[in-house]
């Protein structure tokens, strides 16, 4: 994913990508409007509350969360992650982990691979807030001039299944499946398989106590 972000970051810089820290959400041409996020969390640090979830000691992965987040984020300034919340993006009863900095301006969402290692789903910063639907999380923001960047991470069975990007310049679109550019017809098939209805969530944040 880091390669994709670096590739897209370079692409966006050619069109004058504005810094994330400028703040403010901007609606894109898709149904992906920014929303608040709702999730249940446990009362103790090492348990999730979604039915069927296994106990998860988030402190075990905290250093990895921080390192992976810094590598994957487009922003140049990174602050320590200090809080977390459990969310179930695909509704399968197994939680993903949303982590944030103390000021709530920067963060990332993680799932886990088959070996139990954290996998970056998406990052966030001021002006690049995630929106959620069943089975996906996405960000959309202006990319300088008449261009918009829309990126979706599809989560299935608690795994990152694929990433889909729609980069728009005026009325022209470039579509990517992961790092591979795809055609308009292929992109429309992918869009047809995504329910863009937003899911409202309200995370209950917990401060990390063991790092």
Structure description:
With 211 residues, the chain is an alpha+beta fold. It contains three helices and eleven strands. Strands 5-6-7-8-9-10 form a six-stranded antiparallel sheet. It has a five-stranded antiparallel sheet with strand order 4-3-2-1-11, with helices on one face. The protein is globular.
Sum up the overall morphology in one term. Answer: globular
Q: Could you give a short account of the major beta sheet?
A: 6 strands, antiparallel
The N- to C-terminal Cα distance equals 25 Å
Q: Give the averaged pLDDT, no decimals.
A: 79
Write down the secondary-structure element order: HHEEEEEEEEEEHE
Low-confidence stretches: 1-53
Strand arrangement across the biggest beta sheet: 5-6-7-8-9-10
The number of distinct β-strands equals 11
Overall structural class, as computed from helix and strand content, comes to alpha+beta
Radius of gyration, whole Å: 16 Å
Topology:
Elements: H1 2-13, H2 62-72, E1 81-87, E2 96-101, E3 107-112, E4 118-124, E5 131-133, E6 136-142, E7 147-156, E8 159-169, E9 172-177, E10 180-182, H3 184-192, E11 206-207
Antiparallel strand pairs: 1-2, 1-11, 2-3, 3-4, 5-6, 6-7, 7-8, 8-9, 9-10
